Amino acid sequence: MERLGDLEHWVAQLGAEHCLAPAVLHHVDLCLTELVSNVIQYGYPDGKAGTVTIRFWREPERILISIEDDGTPFDPTAYVPTALPSSLAEAGTGGRGIRLVRHFADEVHHERSAAGNQLTLVFRSPRPAAPRTADSGA
Amino acid sequence: MEMAVHELESGILGINLSGRMDIAGTQQIDLKFSVLTSTRRAQILVDLSNVTFIASIGIRTLIVSAKAQKLRGGSMVLYKPSDQVEEVLRATGIEAIIPIAHDLDAARGAFGSA
């Protein structure tokens, strides 16, 4: 769990390198925090060491992030959101992480192979327009 | 994360949180926050204006304490979250179970109805 701090810095670096809007960056940060901590917390119940690999792609209109792990099968796309609580008494204390991922990622895809889980997150993020030069449009 | 506590007017207990309410940050304040918010009846104003990020574990901490406080007959109000933090809170429907206020008058009113 202590390596999750590295993830925060990686996301900040991505934002700077790829000119991602603060709102998109926040959604990426939140989804990665939820999913990677979920894998670490529940993916390796027998305490065995595992590997989580995170990749990033930039496309013109969107960014994609994949999270691969070799832990317990888990498909967040199978999650069916429950009704939101209407009172404090009926509110559960957990189970909000996947709801947040499904809310803030524009698409979530899951594949399970012999190697483990592969999740792909898609966030709409148009590439910023190039700045106009002094003679553009002349 | 950091936490500061002060008594506000009319017996309202103000708790100012600052930093990232992610796993590491929440673990830093969770025990102290739980003790402060759960062991005696109070009206608790949790100032989130300096919280830069909140994940589900941070929301869990707020809900556990709000539930404990409710059982004691007290209440909790979340105060001045940033747009980003409020967006996350609302995505989980928190505003329906723990009031969110952006000024003290609204907070006082929310304590009355919470």
Describe this structure in words.
By secondary structure, chain A is an alpha+beta fold. Chain A has one domain (4-80, 97-124): Histidine kinase-like ATPase, C-terminal domain (Heat Shock Protein 90, 2-Layer Sandwich), CATH 3.30.565.10. Chain A has three helices and four strands. Chain A has helices at residues 4-17, 22-42, 97-104; strands spanning 52-58, 62-69, 107-113, 116-124. Chain A has a four-stranded antiparallel β-sheet with strand order 1-2-4-3, with helices on one face. In chain A, strand 3 (107-113) and strand 4 (116-124) form a beta hairpin. In chain A, helix 2 (22-42) runs antiparallel to helix 3 (97-104). Chain B has a single domain (2-113), classed as Transcription Regulator spoIIAA, CATH 3.30.750.24. In chain B, 45% of the residues lie in helices and 31% in strands. In chain B, a hairpin with a 4-residue loop joins strand 1 (2-7) and strand 2 (12-21).
